[in-house]
């Protein structure tokens, strides 16, 4: 008889078996489609209402377009005429820069001062916070701007009050040296939005920091410089960026105070007001489109400068010890 040899079966334990492709696992795209459905209104709006108009505006900036005839390609002529042969353009730039430099620090300073007063206020804080915030909701309307113009017009309330104390300025609206400050004061009056943000930031500062500073002999002013300002610097930076961007785009107050003409002597000819005049009054839509793109570039450059310089004065608590 021949000997029969048997072999032990080879081990089959090779770890967990992987499912075959396409089985036991739903494709990732099938899991993501609900997100695209919910995002689709925003995506459609961004394309139709933002990206497409921006592309059309960029094209029109290189054309001669009067809203009635087909656009005519002229290359860089709008930009060269604007920068080299339009003195009113540079006056609008100067007026806007003056407004930004004066209005933004005043508004933020006033908002921070009121926020610090409300921080230490016990009862009634919610009422005063709402009352101070209300002008931010109302101040951008045309009706409030017209009321403001009436207050500072010749024979208005402001001129009469100043006359009673011996300050004879006349109407600010008709004074080329003072008219821009009517709009500045209207902007400062709308300090409610940055004030609320400042108040939220102040409430996040630990009282232990003030107690430690007081133990070291620091007075209120020293505590403000050494504790409040550094700890609040991210909030200051946030408000600063928002207010600078908004100030470059101011339009409604300038239109209402000047009657849409930027007077007297172009003293209230803000950039956006001149853009509106060139586009919709003079029907030079190509020129206005070029102005809009230069404004976008200018805002981008200023914002980039603010972000670059913020590294030297903005303090973030989570960066300590890095």
TrEMBL record:
**Where does the sequence pass through the membrane?**
35-62, 97-118, 130-151, 178-202, 223-242, 285-307
Q: How does it sit in the membrane?
A: Multi-pass membrane protein
Q: Output the Pfam families linked to this UniProt entry.
A: BPD_transp_1 (PF00528)
Q: Could you tell me which residues belong to the region Disordered?
A: 1-29
Using the record's annotation, list all stretches that form the ABC transmembrane type-1 domain: 93-306
**Do you know which SUPFAM superfamilies this protein is assigned to?**
MalF N-terminal region-like, MetI-like
Keywords annotated in UniProt: Cell membrane, Membrane, Transmembrane, Transmembrane helix, Transport
Q: What is this protein called?
A: Sugar ABC transporter permease
Question: To which species is this protein native?
Answer: Streptomyces endophyticus
Q: What is the lineage of its organism?
A: Bacteria, Bacillati, Actinomycetota, Actinomycetes, Kitasatosporales
């Amino acid at each position: 008889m021949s000997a029969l040899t048997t072999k032990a079966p080879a081990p089959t334990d090779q770890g967990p078996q992987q499912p075959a492709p396409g089985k036991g696992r739903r494709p990732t795209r099938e899991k993501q489609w609900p997100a695209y459905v919910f995002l689709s209104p925003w995506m459609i709006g961004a394309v139709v209402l933002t990206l497409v108009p921006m592309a059309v505006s960029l094209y029109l900036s290189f054309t001669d377009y009067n809203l009635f005839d087909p656009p005519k390609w002229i290359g860089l002529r709008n930009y060269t005429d604007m920068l080299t042969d339009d003195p009113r353009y540079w006056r609008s730039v100067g007026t806007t820069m003056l407004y930004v430099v004066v209005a933004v620090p005043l508004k933020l300073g006033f908002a921070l001062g009121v926020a610090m007063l409300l921080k230490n206020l016990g009862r009634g804080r919610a009422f005063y916070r709402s009352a101070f915030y209300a002008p931010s909701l109302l101040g951008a309307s045309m009706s409030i701007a017209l009321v403001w113009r009436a207050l500072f017009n010749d024979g208005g309330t402001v001129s009469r009050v100043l006359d009673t104390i011996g300050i004879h300025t006349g109407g600010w609206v008709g004074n080329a040296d003072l008219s821009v400050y009517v709009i500045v004061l209207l902007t400062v009056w709308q300090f409610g939005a940055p004030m609320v943000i400042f108040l939220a930031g102040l409430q996040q500062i630990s009282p232990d920091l003030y107690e430690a500073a007081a133990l070291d002999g620091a007075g209120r002013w020293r505590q403000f410089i050494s504790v409040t300002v550094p700890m609040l610097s991210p909030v200051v930076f946030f408000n600063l960026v928002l207010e600078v961007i908004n100030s470059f785009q101011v339009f409604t107050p300038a239109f209402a105070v000047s009657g849409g003409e930027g007077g007297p002597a172009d003293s209230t000819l803000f950039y956006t007001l001149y853009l509106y005049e060139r586009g919709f009054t003079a029907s030079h839509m190509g020129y206005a489109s070029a102005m809009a793109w230069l404004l976008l570039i200018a805002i981008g450059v200023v914002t980039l400068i603010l972000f670059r310089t913020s590294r030297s004065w903005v303090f973030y608590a989570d960066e300590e010890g890095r």
